Each structure stands twice: as structure tokens, then as C-alpha cells.
Amino acid sequence: MKAKSRYIITIENESRLENVFRVSMSPWKITLTGAVILILLLSLGALILYITPAHTLLPGYLKDSERAETEEQHMRLDSLQNAYQINDYFLSNIMHVLDTEREVFSDVKTENRDSLRYASDSIIPTSQEERNFVAMMRERDKYNISIVAPLAAESMMFSSVNEESIISDDSRHSTKAKIIISKRSPVAAIADGTVISVSQSLKEGGGTAVLIQHPKGFLSRCSRLGTVLIEAGDKVSGGQIIALTTNGNARNNEIINIEMWHNGTPLIPYEYLGEPNSDSFLQ
User: Fold this and answer.
1) How far apart are CA 216 and CA 241, in angstroms?
2) pTM of the model
């Protein structure tokens, strides 16, 4: 019969010729003991990372300040896209003006058309596209708010965060709408989009803030939330439940905040979300 392999570890006191420590183990026991020790070391390391600030040194971890800066950069990107479109219109208009082969207005006399085509120092009549471009540049600031956003919103389906929620009277003309809603009520996305970030808000009474990028250049931010049911990168649909309100200090209702942007321009949420219910909700 073949003898089983065993490994013996002995600690001996040579001055007295005594065995202080002696252990005998088979190969499978050594493997099992090593595995247990490895699991204990990994568990200890995970515990240290969890209860100490050491987890902030892990790759991919974002501090609150870095997360806030990331959200700000996303909003700046919308503004840059809008500026790029305007510059593209401008360059296209310049190329059109420099094209001497283009058709001129019908109010220009026929006998003058050939001279306008070959005379480099002649004044080329402006086209309707040029006039529209100049008018757009002059009215750009108010155009973005009063024309562009409503036109883009015509093809969008916006919905309220909750069928029983209402927008407070003092924020109907504000870019930060206060939504009155019951405690532990579901909160829905106002339109289809992609979740950019989910972060803890240190301002506005605390809670969690969710930033969602919508089509047509729209961006929304819902803050002062309780339990959040989605995470960054998720695709959401309009009306989909994304969070629950908190059990705050209010007697019956809670208040959450809604903000909206279009290509970096702040909007008034009440003009797009309206008011889904009557004042009976406050009773």
C-alpha cells in the first residue's frame, strides 16, 4: 500500500532538544488552509476600503466636486454644439455671398446681370437667406428662448413627474420649478432620454439628483429625490418611474425640484410640463 504524502512543520528548542511547535498536514489540507487565509486577507482588505477613506484612491472613483464638474461640462457641451451650428450657418452664408454665379433677385434689371457677374468691385445684392441670417443673429438671445425651444418641443412628448403632483405658484415663472408631491410617491422621467449622472446633492435640502439628456438638445435635472431606481447610462422612457420621494419633515407632502435646458439655455419648466392636476391635491 502506497504511503500518503504528508508535510511536517516543526519548531524546536535546540538548547533543550524539545519540540516547541509541530504540525503535520496533507497536501489537500495545505491547499484548503491557504485558500481560507487568502479569503480572510481579501475580506480584511475590502473591509478596510469600506470603512476608511482609502476607497477614494481606487481608479474610477469620482469625488463630489469632480462629479459636479462633470455635470457642468455636459451642459457646456450643449452650449458648444449650439455655437457650432451658428458658426456653420455663418460660414455657409459667406460661401453663398462669395459665389458670383448665384442667381440674383428679380428686382435687378436684366441688362445689369452680366456686369454684376464680371465686375469684381460691384455690390452683390443680398439674398433672402442672407437677410434671414442677419435677422436671426440680431434676435439670437430671445430667439433661443421664445422660438427655438418651443419649436423643438413640438416633436417632444413631455409629461409630469407624477399624475398627482403640482407646480408651486411661486415657481411657475422660475427656471427651477418646485414640484409638490406626496411622501414616498413615484417620480417619473419627463421624457425619453439617457441618464447622465446620479449623485447626492449637498445643496437644496440634500437628497439625490438625476441628470437626463433628452433628444433635440433638451436636458433635465430632478433633485431632492429619495430612493433612486436607475443609474448612469440607463435609457429611460417618458413616464418611466426613476425614483421615489423621501419621508421628509413635511406633514403630508414633499417638494422636489425640476430644471430644464435647451442647448445650454435655461427654460421655465412650467411652460413645458404644465399642471396635471387641480389644487385639490393640497387639501
Assistant:
1) 22
2) 0.47
